[in-house]
What we know:
The chain is an alpha+beta fold. It has ten helices and eight strands. It has helices at about 20-30, 45-55, 65-80, 100-110, 165-175, 180-190, 195-205, 215-230, 240-245, 250-264, and strands spanning about 1-5, 10-15, 115-120, 125-130, 135, 140, 145-150, 155-160. The chain has a four-stranded antiparallel sheet, with helices on one face. It has a two-stranded antiparallel sheet with strand order 1-2. Strands 5-6 form a two-stranded antiparallel sheet.
Amino acid sequence: MVKIGQTDKDGYTLIFEGANAELFLIKYTFEIYAGKKGERVFSTENLDNAIDVLQKYDKHRLSENQIENIRKLVDSKIQRRKNKYTHQIELKKLRIRNAPREEFRNLLEKVEYRGYEVEQLEDGRKIVITKPGGKFVYGRVKKEDFVVWVYNPLDSTLWAISHKDIYKDLQEKGDLNAGETIRIIDALEKVYNGEEPEEVLKNTKLSNPSGENPEVLLKAYKWIWGQEDCNYPDGKGREMSMYGTPKIPGLRELRETLNCQMAT
């Protein structure tokens, strides 16, 4: 028998009895809470996926402390290594001979970045991604995370463009021309819904009141939205930047604000 019981302090733990209790505990936690009935969840990858779901699970109103207690209990039973998972990786040999501190640091700083060129921009810049991105949530790495950059090959500058950057750029555009900014947001929503940025740009005439060219925003957001979906596959993902959260204003909210400005 397994049931949720109150701990002495501030969370829940799982009370279990009977033969093979440790294995049953693991199966109970990740088959019931993560909806994985009948699936063996003993691999590290499946276990991490189940924990991701468990963190977002709201049916029993589990707090972060309660979720952490369950995770610690499971970790202690299977003695797993944290942040160990299975994933394909493309390798390039790199050999650097060890050296005293400063000399070795200087050698390491000269190691080139590696990434993927995913979009070409008319001004010669490129949208590139580097993976993994190094994002951690609740002390665990998000293995599918990546970073979206605007790269200028002329001076080798890399700009880690974000929703915050694009939102601010759109606000500034809106201060100068609300109508045209709404058209840009409408074009962004087409990309949000799965259309290719290049096709949207071909079929939509957009002018630029200020700041970054709309092409940059559309092509960067394609990958930022993909990044958000990879990091939060069972959560809101890209909806956070489109519809907003209590801490993050969304594009829809900005569009409504601009509509109100035009109506007054």
